[in-house]
Write a structure and sequence with these properties.
The complex is a heterodimer of chains A (about 350) and B (about 325). With about 350 residues, chain A is an alpha/beta fold. Helices cover about 35% and strands about 20% of the residues of chain A. In chain A, strands 3-2-4-5-7-6-12 form a 7-stranded mixed β-sheet, sandwiched between helices. Chain A has a 5-stranded mixed β-sheet with strand order 9-11-10-13-14, with helices on both faces. In chain A, strands 1-8 form a two-stranded antiparallel sheet. Chain A starts with 7 loop residues before the first strand and ends with a helix. Chain B contains 11 helices and 9 strands. The N terminus of chain B is likely disordered. Chain B is globular and about 50 Å long. By secondary structure, chain B is α/β, with parallel strands linked by helices. Classes of the chains: A alpha/beta (about 350), B alpha/beta (about 325). The interface between A and B is large, with 42 and 45 residues.
């Protein structure tokens, strides 16, 4: 029997490999953004690309997000497939007009006659003491606005497969990658930031959640770091005989209601965990999905954990308090199971 | 830097005639729109009522910018236009029937009734416009990038109003376009007002072509709303862009005969201003030049008649078109 060779890659190398393979496959694919050339992207998502494809297809831009995201829109309308990087999602404030008024609306306002096959990739997430302007996820801010697919993969395997799908998709895709899951040498070293990634190109759908741990007692829905913390909490709960089912949402828009509802019909209990702000966010959306589609299957009210409507603070003691983690998830599930 | 006025380019008679006929078409189109837009809005003006609801920004008087530039473009060159788009669309060759149907909110429209007058997209002739000031400039830059990446000599033109030259997108994009030597031309139509605010109250420099110096590119100024001078300045800019010699800013002094939008009380300008501007109607000026060039009255009448017929047919098509089904609103968010 042959042993399957498992190749391990960090999140950022998985992304860069996807982009590289698509650039090889399709000459219309090009990359632009700040420090994406020789630096390889501040979070490593474009490493090695300029060496292979040169500065004509891997373009370092001025600090002019409106200009280069707008130019990506203009190029996409002409049939190119740009991958633009907005360095931190927090910087959307200087260019959101291009993103939500143009990228997200031109296909619709043109009655489908103009396609914008582009990817806007951006770094999200906190937990590394960079404070309120460099630590947000803003999942819901983007997912709220129609006209963009919004995905946030949690594993190197999905980062590669979903990036490949995003580049091949004829619609604008906002591709959020979590800084902590990139495998950066200058951040906390997490096991979850490295994983098995096949060498050949493959796709992962942009509209399907994944059940990453099966269980019968409670459903925990999260995305990116929250999924990983949920799995860690589930392992601790399992030691006590509690079987939590963990769903990695993977895609915020479109959202995979079926996977959530199927799980709820089995477990009857729901905890939603989010690294974004609590109010009007992903946790509320999933609670509404549960109320609309599985209310009579619920044995207890829905629970939510998220950043409690404050900007992300700097000091570790403060930041650790507001971002949900393994221990909080564990406690919340225990408390949820004591109800009803 | 400015384009040398002494340069003796002559405008071929056929191009002169094309410009005249397009200007007549644009003028007649906008005149008809004034009438159609007022349908169903009396006795009380309600912007959401009538045959054509919503805001309406007409370009009456601003024809020279559109025809002088578009005379040099093919359907493969790209144009982005702002909230006042009809003159650019017509001069670029946008399907006039589908455009009018779009403005009427009909399903036969360019965007199946989802865009309206400020959001017209005709990929067949690479035309787009939008309702956010200055936002179309980077789109044109992106089209210019694509043109070069595909190894063509196509160019892209962003038409903007003078008010847009004070938006960040203008500066960001011109720096980028100059840096990357893109085949981009930005045409600034100075109609003197950003809605109500006069240019001298909003802009630190006399004319925006002078800002070209800040990016190390060429600037050109066209005075007196002159279509022939606009033709010449555009010819130089387009040639430069096609030859890989980078972007140009052209500012043209133009006139807005109507309000910012239909229904604008125009309290910010003197009652005598518009009659004075109409004395300098660019269509009449070009007509005189044509007559002086040996085109006779009968030729001109025929050109005018043909242009108007095309417009009448477009309005008729729009009026007779069906409205979309209500639930068509749910389609076209994503392409499958």
């Amino acid at each position: 029997m042959k042993t399957a060779k498992k190749r391990m890659l960090s999140g950022n190398k998985a992304m860069a490999e996807a982009i590289s393979q698509e650039m090889e496959r399709d000459s219309n694919v090009f990359v632009l953004g700040e420090d994406i050339g020789k630096y390889g992207g501040i979070f490593g998502s474009t490493q090695g690309l300029i060496e292979t494809y040169g500065p004509e297809r891997v373009l370092d831009t001025p600090i002019s997000e409106t200009a280069f995201i707008g130019a990506a829109i203009g190029a996409a309308a002409e049939g190119m497939r740009p991958v633009a990087e907005l360095m931190f999602v927090d910087f959307f404030g200087v260019c959101m007009d291009q993103i939500y008024n143009h990228m997200a609306k031109i296909p619709y306002m043109s009655g489908g006659n103009v396609k914008l096959p582009m990817v806007l990739m951006t770094a999200v997430g906190g937990g590394y003491n960079d404070a309120a302007q460099h630590s947000q996820t803003l999942y819901a801010t983007f997912a709220h606005l129609p006209g963009m697919k919004v995905v946030a993969p949690s594993t190197p395997y999905d980062l590669k497969g979903m990036m490949t799908s995003a580049i091949r998709d004829d619609n604008p895709v906002v591709f959020m990658f979590h800084k902590s899951l990139q495998g950066l040498g200058w951040m906390d070293q997490l096991d979850e930031a490295v994983g098995n990634v096949p060498e050949e190109a493959y796709t992962v759908p942009l509209d399907k959640a994944a059940v990453v741990r099966e269980g019968k007692d409670v459903t925990i829905v999260g995305i990116q770091m929250m999924t990983h913390y949920a799995v860690q909490a589930a392992e601790k709960l399992a030691d006590e005989g509690i079987e939590a089912e963990v769903i990695d949402l993977r895609s915020l828009a479109p959202i995979d209601k079926d996977t959530i509802l199927t799980s709820l019909k089995k477990t009857g209990r729901l905890l939603v965990v989010d690294e974004d702000y609590l109010s009007y966010g992903m946790t509320a959306e999933i609670a509404a999905i549960a109320a609309e589609g599985a209310l009579y299957d619920l044995e207890a009210p829905v629970r939510r954990l998220a950043v409690p409507d404050v900007p992300l603070p700097y000091s570790s003691v403060l930041e650790d308090f507001v971002i949900p983690g393994k221990e909080k998830i564990y406690q919340e599930v225990k408390s949820l199971l004591e109800e009803g | 830097m400015s384009i040398s006025e002494e340069k003796q380019t002559t405008v071929p008679l056929e191009k002169m005639k094309w410009m005249y006929s397009e200007m007549v078409k644009i003028r007649y189109y906008e005149d008809q729109m004034v009438e159609v837009y007022s349908e169903g809005k009396a006795p009380v003006f309600n912007i959401g009522a009538g045959t054509v609801p919503g805001e309406m920004h007409l370009a009456t008087g601003q024809e020279p910018a559109a025809v002088g530039m578009c005379a040099h473009l093919t359907k493969d060159d790209t144009v982005s236009s702002p909230h006042r788009p009809h003159h650019h669309a017509i001069a670029k060759g946008v399907d006039l029937k589908k455009m009018t149907a779009e403005i009427f909110g009909r399903k036969t429209g360019l965007g199946k009734g989802k865009g309206g007058h400020m959001h017209l997209f005709d990929p067949d002739v690479k035309f787009s416009c939008g309702g956010i000031v200055a936002a179309g400039i980077p789109h044109a830059a992106g089209a210019a990038m694509a043109a070069r990446m595909k190894g063509t000599d196509r160019v892209a033109v962003a038409f903007i109003g003078e008010g847009a030259a004070n938006a960040g997108a203008f500066h960001e994009t011109l720096n980028l376009a100059a840096l990357w030597n893109l085949p981009l031309i930005v045409v600034v139509e100075d109609n003197s007002y950003g809605i109500s605010v006069p240019k001298k109250a909003s802009t630190s420099i006399e004319s925006n072509d002078k800002r070209a110096g800040a990016y190390g590119i060429t600037g050109a100024y066209v005075k007196d709303n002159d279509p022939v001078a606009m033709y010449k300045a555009s010819e130089e800019a387009v040639t430069r862009a096609r030859d890989g010699q980078g972007p140009t800013i052209i500012e043209i002094e133009t006139y807005r005969f109507l309000g910012h939008f239909q229904g604008d009380p125009e309290l910010y300008r003197d009652k005598e201003e518009v009659p004075g501007l109409r004395q300098q109607d660019p269509i009449l000026k070009l007509k005189k030049q044509l007559l002086a060039s040996g085109v006779d009255d009968a030729d001109i009448e025929k050109m005018e008649k043909d242009a108007k017929q095309v417009v009448d047919e477009a309005y008729e098509f729009a009026r007779n078109s069906e409205f979309p089904e209500a639930d068509d609103a749910l389609r076209d968010v994503f392409t499958s």
